[in-house]
Amino acid sequence: MDYSKKSPIATLSLFLLTLILILFSWNPLTYKLTSFPQKHSSNTTILISVPKDELQIALDKASLPNKTLIIAIINKAYVEPHENEYPTMFDLFLEGFWAGEETRPLVNNLLVVAMDETAYQRCLFRRLNCYRLVADGGDEFSGEKIYMSGEFIEMMWRRTLFLLDVLKRGYNFIFTDTDVLWLRNPFKRLINNETIDFELSTDVFNGNSSSKDNLINTGFYFIKSNNKTISLFETWYDKRKNSTGMKEQDVLANLVLKGVFGQLGLKTSFLDTIYFSGFCSDSKDVRLVATVHANCCRTIRAKVEDLKTVLRDWKRFKNRERTSTVDGTNRFRWSRHVSCIKSWHNETLH
């Protein structure tokens, strides 16, 4: 008998054994999948699994069951100390969650988006929910971008494009700059109304939350994902082509004034600075303030100095509130934002 050729039965047995080994060694848990229902004429539903990308995984991890989360975007300039002096901007941002009222649990719903590898590694070290946003040019957004410089404007548009992607994936979110201190849970101050699509902070509030004459600020806002808000962000991002030298906030302000929000059927509320304040317009009531934004300021160094002062003011107020039997609210005054005021007059910026 010629044993140099395998019999058909032996070949078939070897094939079946190999197939069994493959099936038992495959672990479906190593694949991150999501399922979408597909309807068929038989009225049965078949689940088709497709792989999740890294952003989808990060969004799912940070979001609440209703697909709502908090998003902050950082780069190296926000996580590295200026001239080796701590704290950094990112340190102060996180300290606000620690020192604020009912804000610590919100860190679990915070997604930190890093625009370079240094920022991403710092985020991971903090054990936060982190996502690495890769720019076309690598780490081109890693350093400090001086306000209204060409690189600053480009970085703001890249941010807008990313947030459009998040909306398209069906997520609602608060977007917050990292120069915003969260002193109280802002969700409690947002309008609990299903008809409102977009709640946008202001540099100066004119007293009317529906007025398009409010001076807006895109450093803090709450937006819901729907066809109207997606259309807004698409329109907004497309306008960059004809808006040379304009930052994305100014382009959005023009859309407000031209009535684009109304044309899209968008329901918007402009946030009162008594609750969502900033250096442009301090909150007049420390008992109500939820966030403090270091707006009307030109450099990170100046923002850091004045935000440290805001935290000291806040802790001083909270300590007085705990230890004094007399209401000291009427005597409370925010310190002047000295460094930010000076930042507009310095010819050489570091």
From TrEMBL:
Domain of life (superkingdom): Eukaryota
Main location: Golgi
Enzyme class: transferase
Name the UniProt record assigns to this protein: Glycosyltransferase
EC nos: 2.4.2.-
Topology versus the membrane: Single-pass type II membrane protein
InterPro entries: At1g28695/At4g15970-like (IPR044821), Nucl-diP-sugar_transferase (IPR005069), Nucleotide-diphossugar_trans (IPR029044)
Keyword Glycosyltransferase: yes
Segments forming domain Nucleotide-diphospho-sugar transferase: 106-307
Keywords from the named record: Cell wall biogenesis/degradation, Glycosyltransferase, Golgi apparatus, Signal-anchor, Transferase, Transmembrane
Family named by the database record: Belongs to the glycosyltransferase 77 family.
Cell wall biogenesis/degradation among keywords: yes
Cellular localisation: Golgi apparatus membrane
